[in-house]
Write a structure and sequence with these properties.
Number of helices: 20
Shape: elongated
Radius of gyration: 32 Å
Strand order of the largest sheet: 12-11-15-16-18-17
Helix content: 25-40%
Structural class: alpha+beta
Oligomer: single chain
Strand content: 15-25%
């Protein structure tokens, strides 16, 4: 069975303790006594009833169905059993009975030795109905028929709502100390910030911690996550980070932080920062300490996961650190318009209010700058770029600890010594492609991942002026290679020489093929054949001289005294 998410068992236990509510329901079994255990005579809700529950959850904020829990007593049904085949059949039955189709996400849970089934109903921006045309919405611990006059309002809310602006009908929700903490952090970051209001009500309104509806102020998701008390935070139990560090000997150490976003970010970053390890590398006169995971990369990836995760999903952020790499899993897909090929250049904030607060306290900067910093830091340290993996419910970013390019580190250090500043991301991206490819054309650079087409020409000119790169070949055959002065080792100098020789060998071969077909060639025809500019007369002359000396060609003496016409050696 495919594992759709990596929600922890402990989190399901904590959710189970809440009892039935607007995100959870219990089912003792299904109408299949041979596979799901207990006799159908006691309690057997059919697929139609389950479809109603699923529609109601999807039309609210998503939720969970716990199968194998007795509804009245909340005890585990010891006779409950299931197979993967039955799970897939159940999901198909629900899909057939919901419009638009709702696909459930299965999870396994073991309690007191009994394996239970948990079905997750994802939050949906659409309005759903049963196949019989019933529109329902979850209300407290039951389902409510949506009246015709309510339909337009609910559809409007579902299409326009941004989840961090969702309101919660709870009272006495705010924690004074946490509110003061946000205030103080903003004041420290910028003492004249217009967000610093004299009273709590104005402060809440300015930062969108509250929202008025029909004359009543309600807390928003943002307000609860940043200033809510522990009681209010229980309404969003999936505001949590789970971190597991795995050691080479098989040991592992789990950590867990939940609740207030600022407290969670501070605690998690402090732990990750405490584990940073360094090693010293030497590059001639340069000595550099390279971290396995730098503070910049850890902080930006962590903050990115917190502010951009999908808070409508009942899923937690998970960080897993292995001996050679680290991965951060954030709930939800890329926002609309963003994918694994353009996430460096494009941004579409999922939680704009949360992001605004994190920027105001300087935990985050301008939109899209996070991955700029990550890319620049990783490249300057000779590391691979982060690789995103998209699952059915989340995005996982992986970064490697080991260094893969000593040369890029060396060039970064040389640039800093020459220019008095760090090399920017655009130059690092281009240099990385040239180093990895050995030799690459302008068109190939344009098509390389993440490189800016609009800035590429200027970046190449700058790098050539600084003698970090140079060209080989001519016109359409022109390609970029590292400058000969950057070939520090004997092996690199040999490679540089080989690249130059290979280009000239191809040009000679082209001339010989031309002679085999046409018979003779002159200087002008050779320039056209090799697509060289007219001013490269001397280059062609030198090329012909080498071919004469090597015995590949000879001057065609049958055509008068013209010494500039050549043919194959007879």
């Amino acid at each position: 069975m495919k594992k759709y998410t990596k929600l922890s068992v402990q989190w399901f236990y904590e959710l189970l303790e809440k009892g039935e509510c607007d995100i959870m329901d219990f089912k003792e079994q299904l109408e299949d006594k041979n596979i799901f255990g207990k006799s159908i005579k006691s309690f057997a809700p059919n697929y139609e009833e389950m479809a109603r529950d699923v529609v109601a959850f999807a039309n609210k904020k998503g939720g969970f169905l716990f199968l194998g829990i007795v509804d009245k007593t909340k005890e585990v049904n010891k006779e409950f059993v299931y197979t993967d085949e039955k799970i897939y059949d159940l999901i198909k039955q629900i899909q057939d009975r919901t419009k638009p189709t709702i696909t459930l996400l299965p999870h396994r849970l073991t309690i007191d030795g009994t394996k239970l089934l948990v079905l997750e109903i994802p939050f949906s921006m659409q309005m759903h109905s049963t196949s019989r045309g019933e529109y329902l919405v979850r209300s407290n611990n039951g389902n409510k028929i949506i009246e015709p006059h309510e339909m337009a309002t609910i559809m409007s809310e579902k299409s326009l709502i941004i989840y961090d602006q969702k309101i919660w009908a709870i009272s006495s929700w705010q924690d004074e100390l946490r509110t003061q903490n946000v205030f103080n952090k903003i004041k420290t970051a910028r003492a004249d910030s217009p967000l610093l209001k004299e009273n709590t009500e104005e402060f809440n309104d300015t930062l969108n911690f509250t929202k008025e509806e029909q004359g009543t102020l309600y807390p928003t998701t943002t307000g609860i996550l940043l200033t809510g008390n522990n009681k209010a935070l229980k309404e969003i139990p999936y505001s949590e980070i789970k971190y597991v560090r795995y050691y080479e000997d098989g040991r592992y150490h789990p950590y867990e932080w939940k609740g207030n976003l600022i407290e969670v970010a501070d605690a998690c970053f402090a732990q990750l920062k405490s584990e940073i390890q360094q090693k010293e590398l030497s590059f001639g006169l340069f000595h550099e300490f390279i971290e396995d995971y730098s503070e910049v990369v850890l902080r930006e990836l962590l903050i990115n996961a917190i502010v951009h995760r999908d808070y409508s999903r009942q899923q937690v952020i998970e960080i897993r650190k292995y001996p050679t790499y680290l991965e951060i899993e954030s709930p939800g897909m890329f926002p609309e318009g963003v994918d694994e090929t353009n996430y460096l250049r494009k941004t579409n904030p999922r939680n704009p209010n949360i992001i605004d607060v994190f920027r105001s306290i300087k935990y985050a900067e301008k939109a899209g700058s996070g991955f700029d910093k990550i890319f620049a830091d990783l490249l300057s340290k000779g590391k691979r770029l982060p690789t995103p993996t998209i699952t059915d419910t989340s995005i996982i970013f992986r970064i490697d600890a080991e260094i893969c390019s000593d040369k890029l580190i060396e060039l970064s250090l040389q640039y800093k010594q020459m220019e008095g500043k760090d090399m920017d991301m655009e130059k690092l991206l281009v240099l990385n492609e040239i180093i990895n490819s050995k030799k690459i054309s302008f068109t190939e650079l344009e098509e390389a991942p993440f490189i800016s087409k609009g800035q590429l020409r200027k970046v190449l000119d700058d790098l050539q002026e600084l003698e970090f790169i140079e060209t080989t070949g001519r016109t359409s055959g022109l390609k970029y290679i590292l400058h000969k002065t950057k070939s520090s080792s004997t092996q690199e100098k040999i490679k540089y020489s080989q690249l130059k020789k290979q280009e000239k060998a191809r040009q000679k071969e082209a001339i010989l093929r031309y002679l085999d077909e046409i018979g003779t060639i002159n200087n002008s025809e050779a320039r056209q054949l090799l697509k060289l500019p007219d001013h490269d007369v001397s280059y062609i002359s030198k090329l012909f001289k080498e071919m004469l000396n090597s015995g590949d060609i000879e001057i065609d003496s049958t055509i008068g005294n013209n010494k500039n016409i050549y043919r194959r050696k007879q």
